[in-house]
Amino acid sequence: MAATKKTNRLDLPGQVEACLSRHLTPRARLRVALSGGIDSVVLLTVLAEIAPRFPFELSALHVHHGLNPKADEWVEHCSVLCRKLSVPLEIVHIKVPRKSAEGLEAAARKARYAALTKPGVEVLALAHHLDDQAETVLFQFLRGGEPRALAAMPEARMLGGIKLLRPLLGVTKSVLVAHARQHHLKWVEDGSNLDTSLSRNALRQDILPVLEKHFPDYRERLAGVARRMSEVAQLLGSLAGQDKQAHALDALNCAELKAMPETRARNLLAHFLREQGVTLPRPAQMREILRQLLEARGRLSLPLPDGRKLLRIKGKARLE
Known about the structure:
Blueprint (H helix, E strand, L loop, with lengths): L1 H8 L2 H12 L5 E5 L4 H13 L6 E8 L6 H15 L3 E5 L10 H13 L6 E3 L4 H13 L4 H4 L5 E4 L2 E4 L7 H10 L16 H16 L3 H27 L7 E2 H5 L3 H14 L7 H13 L4 E4 L5 E5 L2 E4 L1
Parallel strand pairs: 1-2, 1-4, 2-3, 4-6
Antiparallel strand pairs: 5-6, 7-10, 8-9, 9-10
Helix pairs in contact: 2-3, 3-8, 6-10, 10-12
Protein backbone atom coordinates (compact mmCIF):
# COMPACT_ATOMS: atom_id res chain seq x y z
CA MET A 1 0.00 0.00 0.00
CA ALA A 2 2.85 2.42 0.81
CA ALA A 3 4.34 2.10 -2.69
CA THR A 4 0.95 2.75 -4.29
CA LYS A 5 0.41 5.86 -2.19
CA LYS A 6 3.80 7.24 -3.21
CA THR A 7 3.04 6.62 -6.87
CA ASN A 8 -0.24 8.48 -6.55
CA ARG A 9 1.51 11.43 -4.92
CA LEU A 10 3.84 11.63 -7.88
CA ASP A 11 0.97 11.51 -10.40
CA LEU A 12 1.07 15.25 -10.91
CA PRO A 13 -0.75 15.21 -14.27
CA GLY A 14 -3.70 13.44 -12.62
CA GLN A 15 -3.80 15.87 -9.70
CA VAL A 16 -3.52 18.93 -11.93
CA GLU A 17 -6.19 17.61 -14.30
CA ALA A 18 -8.53 17.07 -11.35
CA CYS A 19 -8.05 20.72 -10.37
CA LEU A 20 -8.74 21.87 -13.93
CA SER A 21 -11.92 19.79 -13.99
CA ARG A 22 -13.16 21.62 -10.89
CA HIS A 23 -12.44 25.13 -12.12
CA LEU A 24 -11.87 25.27 -15.88
CA THR A 25 -14.35 25.34 -18.73
CA PRO A 26 -13.36 23.62 -22.00
CA ARG A 27 -11.36 25.77 -24.44
CA ALA A 28 -10.59 28.39 -21.79
CA ARG A 29 -7.58 30.64 -22.35
CA LEU A 30 -5.09 29.54 -19.70
CA ARG A 31 -1.89 31.49 -19.04
CA VAL A 32 0.92 30.21 -16.80
CA ALA A 33 2.97 32.65 -14.73
CA LEU A 34 6.40 31.34 -15.72
CA SER A 35 9.33 32.56 -13.64
CA GLY A 36 11.72 29.86 -14.82
CA GLY A 37 12.04 28.40 -11.32
CA ILE A 38 11.35 24.75 -10.60
CA ASP A 39 7.73 25.25 -9.49
CA SER A 40 6.50 27.09 -12.58
CA VAL A 41 8.59 24.90 -14.91
CA VAL A 42 6.93 21.78 -13.50
CA LEU A 43 3.47 23.37 -13.74
CA LEU A 44 3.94 24.42 -17.37
CA THR A 45 5.30 21.05 -18.49
CA VAL A 46 2.46 19.19 -16.76
CA LEU A 47 -0.15 21.48 -18.33
CA ALA A 48 1.44 21.00 -21.75
CA GLU A 49 1.16 17.23 -21.22
CA ILE A 50 -2.50 17.50 -20.22
CA ALA A 51 -3.55 19.91 -22.98
CA PRO A 52 -4.25 17.30 -25.71
CA ARG A 53 -6.82 15.48 -23.56
CA PHE A 54 -8.24 18.52 -21.74
CA PRO A 55 -8.64 21.17 -24.44
CA PHE A 56 -7.62 24.66 -23.39
CA GLU A 57 -5.59 27.41 -25.01
CA LEU A 58 -2.24 27.33 -23.19
CA SER A 59 0.27 30.18 -23.07
CA ALA A 60 2.92 31.48 -20.68
CA LEU A 61 3.95 34.89 -19.46
CA HIS A 62 7.29 35.85 -17.93
CA VAL A 63 7.68 39.11 -16.02
CA HIS A 64 11.09 40.77 -16.32
CA HIS A 65 11.41 43.25 -13.45
CA GLY A 66 15.14 43.84 -13.77
CA LEU A 67 15.81 43.43 -10.05
CA ASN A 68 18.17 40.47 -10.50
CA PRO A 69 21.39 40.62 -12.57
CA LYS A 70 20.47 37.25 -14.12
CA ALA A 71 17.04 38.44 -15.31
CA ASP A 72 18.04 38.28 -18.99
CA GLU A 73 19.27 34.69 -18.54
CA TRP A 74 15.90 33.77 -17.05
CA VAL A 75 14.15 35.19 -20.12
CA GLU A 76 16.30 33.02 -22.37
CA HIS A 77 15.64 29.93 -20.26
CA CYS A 78 11.87 30.48 -20.41
CA SER A 79 12.05 31.07 -24.16
CA VAL A 80 13.93 27.81 -24.77
CA LEU A 81 11.47 25.84 -22.62
CA CYS A 82 8.40 27.28 -24.34
CA ARG A 83 9.82 26.62 -27.80
CA LYS A 84 10.47 23.02 -26.77
CA LEU A 85 6.88 22.65 -25.53
CA SER A 86 5.38 24.66 -28.44
CA VAL A 87 3.76 27.03 -25.94
CA PRO A 88 3.42 30.74 -26.84
CA LEU A 89 5.41 32.95 -24.47
CA GLU A 90 4.98 36.66 -23.75
CA ILE A 91 7.72 38.65 -22.01
CA VAL A 92 6.60 41.71 -20.07
CA HIS A 93 9.13 44.27 -18.80
CA ILE A 94 8.10 46.22 -15.71
CA LYS A 95 9.68 48.87 -13.50
CA VAL A 96 9.43 48.43 -9.75
CA PRO A 97 9.53 51.58 -7.59
CA ARG A 98 12.51 51.09 -5.29
CA LYS A 99 11.28 53.64 -2.73
CA SER A 100 7.75 52.31 -2.30
CA ALA A 101 6.16 52.73 1.14
CA GLU A 102 5.20 49.03 0.92
CA GLY A 103 8.84 47.92 0.60
CA LEU A 104 10.66 46.64 -2.46
CA GLU A 105 9.48 43.02 -2.13
CA ALA A 106 5.80 43.97 -1.79
CA ALA A 107 6.08 46.55 -4.58
CA ALA A 108 7.63 43.95 -6.91
CA ARG A 109 4.86 41.47 -6.11
CA LYS A 110 2.18 44.09 -6.77
CA ALA A 111 3.74 45.12 -10.10
CA ARG A 112 4.14 41.50 -11.13
CA TYR A 113 0.48 40.70 -10.45
CA ALA A 114 -0.58 43.77 -12.42
CA ALA A 115 1.44 42.50 -15.40
CA LEU A 116 0.18 38.94 -15.07
CA THR A 117 -3.48 39.91 -14.93
CA LYS A 118 -3.54 41.87 -18.17
CA PRO A 119 -6.70 41.53 -20.31
CA GLY A 120 -6.84 38.75 -22.88
CA VAL A 121 -6.74 35.73 -20.61
CA GLU A 122 -9.48 33.97 -18.66
CA VAL A 123 -7.42 31.93 -16.19
CA LEU A 124 -3.97 32.60 -14.73
CA ALA A 125 -2.26 29.48 -13.36
CA LEU A 126 0.16 30.10 -10.48
CA ALA A 127 2.65 27.53 -9.20
CA HIS A 128 2.13 27.97 -5.45
CA HIS A 129 2.34 24.64 -3.61
CA LEU A 130 1.64 23.22 -0.14
CA ASP A 131 4.93 24.46 1.33
CA ASP A 132 4.09 27.97 0.10
CA GLN A 133 0.65 27.73 1.70
CA ALA A 134 2.04 26.65 5.08
CA GLU A 135 4.71 29.34 4.94
CA THR A 136 2.11 32.02 4.16
CA VAL A 137 -0.15 30.99 7.05
CA LEU A 138 2.73 31.08 9.53
CA PHE A 139 4.05 34.35 8.11
CA GLN A 140 0.64 36.01 8.42
CA PHE A 141 0.24 34.64 11.94
CA LEU A 142 3.56 36.16 13.00
CA ARG A 143 2.45 39.48 11.50
CA GLY A 144 -0.71 39.35 13.60
CA GLY A 145 -2.91 38.77 10.57
CA GLU A 146 -6.69 38.72 10.65
CA PRO A 147 -8.69 35.59 9.61
CA ARG A 148 -8.76 36.72 5.98
CA ALA A 149 -4.93 36.88 5.96
CA LEU A 150 -4.61 33.56 7.79
CA ALA A 151 -6.84 31.96 5.14
CA ALA A 152 -3.78 32.41 2.91
CA MET A 153 -4.19 31.29 -0.71
CA PRO A 154 -7.35 29.68 -2.13
CA GLU A 155 -7.13 27.12 -4.92
CA ALA A 156 -9.15 29.48 -7.12
CA ARG A 157 -10.40 33.05 -6.85
CA MET A 158 -11.36 35.95 -9.10
CA LEU A 159 -9.14 39.02 -9.49
CA GLY A 160 -10.19 41.81 -11.81
CA GLY A 161 -12.26 39.53 -14.03
CA ILE A 162 -9.52 36.88 -14.26
CA LYS A 163 -9.61 33.58 -12.39
CA LEU A 164 -6.43 32.84 -10.42
CA LEU A 165 -5.87 29.11 -10.25
CA ARG A 166 -3.32 27.21 -8.15
CA PRO A 167 -3.31 23.59 -9.38
CA LEU A 168 -0.33 22.60 -7.19
CA LEU A 169 -1.64 23.94 -3.89
CA GLY A 170 -2.07 20.47 -2.38
CA VAL A 171 1.35 19.23 -3.55
CA THR A 172 4.53 19.43 -1.47
CA LYS A 173 7.75 20.93 -2.77
CA SER A 174 9.49 17.55 -2.40
CA VAL A 175 7.02 16.01 -4.86
CA LEU A 176 7.71 18.78 -7.39
CA VAL A 177 11.45 18.27 -7.04
CA ALA A 178 11.07 14.52 -7.48
CA HIS A 179 8.93 15.04 -10.59
CA ALA A 180 11.41 17.52 -12.07
CA ARG A 181 14.33 15.16 -11.53
CA GLN A 182 12.43 12.15 -12.84
CA HIS A 183 11.67 14.01 -16.08
CA HIS A 184 15.12 15.66 -16.32
CA LEU A 185 13.68 19.17 -16.29
CA LYS A 186 15.89 22.25 -16.12
CA TRP A 187 15.16 25.35 -14.12
CA VAL A 188 16.81 28.53 -12.81
CA GLU A 189 17.62 29.35 -9.20
CA ASP A 190 16.95 32.79 -7.75
CA GLY A 191 19.84 33.50 -5.39
CA SER A 192 17.81 36.20 -3.63
CA ASN A 193 15.75 33.41 -2.03
CA LEU A 194 18.76 32.71 0.19
CA ASP A 195 18.85 36.26 1.57
CA THR A 196 17.65 35.72 5.14
CA SER A 197 17.54 39.45 5.80
CA LEU A 198 14.12 39.16 4.12
CA SER A 199 11.60 37.87 6.66
CA ARG A 200 9.96 35.26 4.43
CA ASN A 201 13.34 33.83 3.43
CA ALA A 202 14.37 33.65 7.08
CA LEU A 203 11.18 31.77 7.81
CA ARG A 204 11.78 29.36 4.92
CA GLN A 205 15.50 28.81 5.45
CA ASP A 206 15.92 28.97 9.23
CA ILE A 207 12.64 28.33 11.01
CA LEU A 208 10.58 25.86 8.98
CA PRO A 209 13.32 23.18 8.82
CA VAL A 210 13.48 23.22 12.64
CA LEU A 211 9.70 23.11 12.87
CA GLU A 212 9.62 20.08 10.58
CA LYS A 213 11.88 18.11 12.93
CA HIS A 214 9.26 18.29 15.65
CA PHE A 215 6.10 18.52 13.51
CA PRO A 216 6.72 16.58 10.25
CA ASP A 217 3.13 17.20 9.13
CA TYR A 218 3.20 20.96 9.81
CA ARG A 219 2.33 21.71 6.17
CA GLU A 220 -0.95 19.82 6.32
CA ARG A 221 -1.74 21.25 9.76
CA LEU A 222 -1.22 24.84 8.64
CA ALA A 223 -3.16 24.23 5.43
CA GLY A 224 -6.01 23.04 7.66
CA VAL A 225 -5.79 26.30 9.62
CA ALA A 226 -6.05 28.18 6.31
CA ARG A 227 -9.25 26.31 5.38
CA ARG A 228 -10.85 27.03 8.76
CA MET A 229 -9.82 30.69 8.67
CA SER A 230 -11.32 30.95 5.20
CA GLU A 231 -14.66 29.84 6.65
CA VAL A 232 -14.32 32.36 9.49
CA ALA A 233 -13.50 35.13 6.99
CA GLN A 234 -16.57 34.25 4.92
CA LEU A 235 -18.80 34.44 8.00
CA LEU A 236 -17.31 37.79 9.04
CA GLY A 237 -17.80 39.08 5.51
CA SER A 238 -21.44 38.02 5.53
CA LEU A 239 -22.00 39.74 8.88
CA ALA A 240 -20.33 42.95 7.65
CA GLY A 241 -22.46 42.85 4.51
CA GLN A 242 -25.59 42.78 6.64
CA ASP A 243 -24.34 45.61 8.88
CA LYS A 244 -23.37 47.71 5.85
CA GLN A 245 -27.00 47.88 4.73
CA ALA A 246 -27.61 50.61 7.33
CA HIS A 247 -24.94 52.83 5.70
CA ALA A 248 -24.37 54.60 2.40
CA LEU A 249 -22.38 52.82 -0.29
CA ASP A 250 -19.41 55.21 -0.08
CA ALA A 251 -19.49 56.14 3.61
CA LEU A 252 -20.11 54.85 7.13
CA ASN A 253 -22.44 56.57 9.60
CA CYS A 254 -20.30 57.14 12.71
CA ALA A 255 -23.31 57.22 15.07
CA GLU A 256 -24.47 53.81 13.79
CA LEU A 257 -20.91 52.54 14.03
CA LYS A 258 -20.56 53.75 17.64
CA ALA A 259 -23.79 51.97 18.65
CA MET A 260 -22.33 48.61 17.64
CA PRO A 261 -20.08 46.35 19.76
CA GLU A 262 -16.45 47.30 19.11
CA THR A 263 -15.48 44.00 17.44
CA ARG A 264 -18.47 44.22 15.10
CA ALA A 265 -17.75 47.88 14.30
CA ARG A 266 -14.11 47.05 13.57
CA ASN A 267 -15.19 44.20 11.32
CA LEU A 268 -17.50 46.55 9.39
CA LEU A 269 -14.75 49.19 9.07
CA ALA A 270 -12.33 46.58 7.71
CA HIS A 271 -14.98 45.38 5.26
CA PHE A 272 -15.62 48.97 4.11
CA LEU A 273 -11.91 49.69 3.57
CA ARG A 274 -11.43 46.42 1.70
CA GLU A 275 -14.33 47.22 -0.62
CA GLN A 276 -12.60 50.51 -1.43
CA GLY A 277 -9.37 48.69 -2.31
CA VAL A 278 -7.46 49.89 0.76
CA THR A 279 -4.59 47.88 2.25
CA LEU A 280 -5.69 47.18 5.81
CA PRO A 281 -3.62 48.54 8.70
CA ARG A 282 -2.30 46.19 11.38
CA PRO A 283 -4.90 45.12 14.02
CA ALA A 284 -3.58 47.55 16.65
CA GLN A 285 -3.74 50.38 14.12
CA MET A 286 -7.29 49.40 13.16
CA ARG A 287 -8.36 49.66 16.80
CA GLU A 288 -6.76 53.09 17.11
CA ILE A 289 -8.31 54.32 13.85
CA LEU A 290 -11.75 53.19 15.00
CA ARG A 291 -11.26 54.84 18.41
CA GLN A 292 -10.28 58.18 16.89
CA LEU A 293 -13.04 57.96 14.31
CA LEU A 294 -15.74 57.44 16.93
CA GLU A 295 -14.42 59.87 19.56
CA ALA A 296 -13.79 62.80 17.23
CA ARG A 297 -16.29 65.65 17.42
CA GLY A 298 -15.24 67.60 14.37
CA ARG A 299 -13.49 66.99 11.08
CA LEU A 300 -10.80 64.32 11.19
CA SER A 301 -8.24 63.00 8.70
CA LEU A 302 -6.57 59.64 9.38
CA PRO A 303 -3.68 58.37 7.19
CA LEU A 304 -3.85 54.77 5.87
CA PRO A 305 -0.92 52.48 4.94
CA ASP A 306 -1.28 52.92 1.17
CA GLY A 307 -1.23 56.72 1.33
CA ARG A 308 -4.97 57.30 1.25
CA LYS A 309 -6.87 59.01 4.06
CA LEU A 310 -10.00 58.17 6.01
CA LEU A 311 -12.00 61.33 6.68
CA ARG A 312 -14.72 62.06 9.21
CA ILE A 313 -16.97 64.81 7.87
CA LYS A 314 -20.41 65.67 9.27
CA GLY A 315 -20.67 62.36 11.13
CA LYS A 316 -19.72 60.30 8.09
CA ALA A 317 -16.52 58.30 7.51
CA ARG A 318 -15.38 58.27 3.90
CA LEU A 319 -12.17 57.88 1.91
CA GLU A 320 -10.30 60.75 0.32
